[in-house]
Amino acid sequence: GIAAKSHSSVVNITDTHSDNIVDAKYVWSTSNNNNASTGTSFSSGDIISTNGLNGTYYLCVYALDDKGFYNNTCSNAFYFDNTAPTITVTLDDNNTVYKQSHNAKIDVTNDEYGAELDIDSFKYVWTKNIYVEPNESFTNGDTVTKNTGTGIYYVMVTACDTLGNCNTYQSNASKFDNDVPTIDYRIDTINGERYIVIDAYDEHSGV
């Protein structure tokens, strides 16, 4: 079967010996022999639908006529997928150390419910602002590198399946330093002699 976010079915009840169905119930079940007598009431000809489920389900129906005869039957399988892919971002070992460049490996894992990964939806961005929408394409399993900028950056990743179940993930922080040191000159007088003093300072390297 083909997985979908929702399914529906028209259920008709016929009885060759009675025109009066006194009770009709249905239930969506992971079992194909579930007793639906305590399920949700419906009328013959109704469209029965559901969404938000994951996995394999059966539509089980119970019907009772005015003679006391009943039947309980279950449909063939319906396949549901309402789960977004899982995103894993593996940062390099020194991500908490200020460096000129850092790497991140991006892996997208599909769920077990049937929908394929939508590779055209795979986007990422290195960003200081966690609200930036990812806009750079990647291939599953890629290692992406950033070697510009200074400060703390995150990798934001978006991935979807072909049913439109989407996930956005934010990595832990990586620290970047691509600023040159600041150098100051000053003249000091010590014991009547003048000296040129050079101060060098780098905010992120600790120099």
Give a structural overview.
Helix content is 0%, strand content 54%. The protein has no helices and 16 strands. The strands form 5 sheets. Strands 9, 10, 12, 13 and 14 form a 5-stranded antiparallel beta sheet that branches. The protein has a 4-stranded antiparallel beta sheet with strand order 3-2-5-6, with no helix packed on it. It has a 3-stranded antiparallel beta sheet with strand order 7-8-11, with no helix packed on it. A hairpin with an 8-residue loop joins strand 9 and strand 10. The relative contact order is 0.16. The model has no long low-confidence stretch (mean pLDDT 91).
What does the overall shape look like? rod-shaped
- Calculate the terminal CA-CA distance, rounded to whole Å: 63 Å
- Determine the structural class based on helices, strands and strand pairing: mainly beta
Share in β-strands: over 45%
Give the SSE map.
Elements: E1 6-10, E2 21-29, E3 40-41, E4 47-51, E5 55-65, E6 70-80, E7 86-91, E8 102-109, E9 117-127, E10 136-137, E11 143-146, E12 151-161, E13 166-170, E14 174-176, E15 182-190, E16 193-201
Antiparallel strand pairs: 1-4, 2-3, 2-5, 5-6, 7-8, 8-11, 9-10, 9-12, 12-13, 12-14, 15-16
